[in-house]
UniProtKB/TrEMBL annotation:
SUPFAM superfamilies: MFS general substrate transporter (SSF103473). It comes from Olivibacter ginsenosidimutans. This is L-fucose:H+ symporter permease. The gene is fucP_1. PROSITE patterns: MFS. The keyword rRNA-binding does not apply. It holds the Pfam family MFS_1.
């Protein structure tokens, strides 16, 4: 490990942080493109809702299979990242992701739905490697007490990617690379995803050229075998919590375009702008969470910083979407409600998690029973309350695991499988009950997360702050 003074080390980490932040942005952008692909492929192949949700099933199913294989390999032969290093592991993940993007060319050329799903699976495997390596590496790029801040920062830029993707990606697929007719063109995805593959490869080249600090690994902590981590009740509950959170967030995002078509009569070109508000809300919430859950900032300054950041990010989102101010002004109400929820949560992760999950369940119920603008506003407002859920569930789940922390983390990454399973089940419900009534499934997910938050607030009632570990799916 380097023995440079703290100031020199911090300066040494600036370029790697900037480079990895770019990676997180692309990671979020391409992941959110799935929400554009679903209505596109649904029309192209005349799919049912269930069949179209196989997009998320293959993509997030790769997270489960990839992390399961990684867990088995590391348990039997040792941690692969420790053997080849973080830098090479990150580059391998990027190259595999670029390969997944490149496979869209033969999929679009042959117009085979199975090839599209194969490309998404390979893409998901690449992102699985990044999920395992990039988050951990960012946490090492500086002092330990600043790890949470750094991770929240990179994750916020990940959310920037998910915010821009519906607008730019929707324009590329539905307008710029379409054939100009009213029918969906199978070739509309070829060039966009080749461009994504090229950008990812450029990022890989950039990372290979940048001098990333080497972090030595030791065998001081012998890796535990078996499934000893599962003896902790809060971890078992947390695994299901991650499953429910990722599943609900992805399912809602996947159905927003179809939902707005039914309740508002909007076309894809209009709906993609509102989809950006859903994902943009998560970005606002993560920036606010990074400030409010940071105990190094004076309480008197937190609210000022949060209001300022919220205003700036809202203006950024407004500049990206093709909507008037009157069409997006309703979102200011949710920002105010989010600020209030943080204040009521009083920087306690479990309490804040329960509050956010409860509000999300109420908003979903409103979207189910109401119609028109009220239904639309309710669904779009959920994004800002999804913001800190992954990080808080993750941190609460591994609290107190000690020597089983690494094993518990692997199990939590596997639980991202929820992003594959929940949307498919909701798709089946939508085919039989309609899109609005199918929202009862994510409502159940948020009710469970609410209960998990209440359980952890009692279990860790003597711990006011469990440092959040920022993460994403």
């Amino acid at each position: 490990m380097s023995t440079l003074p703290n100031t020199s080390r911090n300066q040494q980490y600036i370029v790697p942080m900037v480079t990895l932040t770019l990676l997180f942005f692309m990671w979020g952008f391409i992941t959110c493109m799935n929400d554009i692909l679903i209505p596109y492929l649904k029309q192209l192949f005349s799919l049912s809702f269930f069949e179209s949700m196989l997009v998320q099933f293959c993509f997030f199913g790769a997270y489960f299979i990839g992390s399961l294989v990684y867990f088995m390999v590391s348990s039997r032969w040792g941690d692969p990242v420790n053997k080849i290093g973080y830098k090479k592991s990150i580059i391998a993940g990027i190259i595999l992701s670029a390969l997944g993007c490149a496979l869209f060319w033969p999929a679009a050329t042959s117009s085979l739905y199975g090839l599209f799903l194969t490309a998404l699976f390979v893409l998901g495997l690449g992102f699985t490697i990044l999920q395992i390596t990039a988050n951990a590496y960012v946490s090492l790029l500086g002092p330990e007490d600043g790890a949470s801040s750094r991770l929240n920062l990179t994750q916020a830029f990940n959310s920037l990617g998910t915010t821009i993707a519906p607008v730019l990606g929707g324009h590329l697929i539905f307008e710029f690379f379409s054939d100009g007719s009213d029918t969906i063109s199978p070739q509309a995805t070829r060039i966009p995803y080749i461009i994504f593959a090229g950008i990812l490869l450029l990022v890989a080249v950039l990372i290979s050229a940048v001098k990333l600090p080497n972090f030595e690994t030791t065998d001081e902590k012998k890796e535990e075998r078996g499934l000893g981590a599962l003896k902790f009740i809060h971890l078992r509950l947390g695994v299901l919590g991650i499953f429910c959170y990722v599943g609900a967030e992805v399912a809602i995002g996947s159905f927003i375009i179809s939902f707005l078509e039914q309740v508002m009569g909007y076309t894809e070109s209009i709906s993609k702008n509102y989809l950006a508000l859903y994902w943009g809300g998560a970005m606002i919430g993560r920036f606010l969470g990074a400030i409010y859950l940071n105990h190094n900032i004076q309480a008197a300054k937190k609210l000022i910083y949060m209001i300022g950041i919220a205003a700036l990010v809202f203006l950024l989102i407004f500049s990206l979407v093709d909507l008037t101010f009157s069409q997006v002004s309703f979102f200011l109400i949710f920002i105010a409600l989010n600020l209030l929820a943080f204040l009521v949560g009083r920087a306690a992760p479990a309490r804040t998690l329960a509050i956010f999950a409860g509000i999300s369940a109420i908003l979903l119920a409103s979207g189910t029973i109401n119609s028109g603008s009220y239904a639309m506003y309710s669904i779009l407002g959920i994004g800002i309350f999804n913001s800190i859920m992954f990080s808080n569930i993750y941190t609460l789940s591994i609290a107190g695991l000690g020597k089983y922390t690494s094993q518990g983390s692997s199990l939590l990454v596997m639980a991202i499988l929820g992003g594959a399973v929940i949307p498919v089940i909701q798709g089946a419900l939508a085919d039989h009950l309609g899109v609005q009534l199918s929202l009862i499934l994510p409502i159940a997910c948020y009710v469970y997360i609410f209960a998990f938050g209440i359980y952890c607030s009692k279990k860790f009632k003597n711990i006011e702050h469990v440092g959040p570990v920022a993460g994403g799916h």
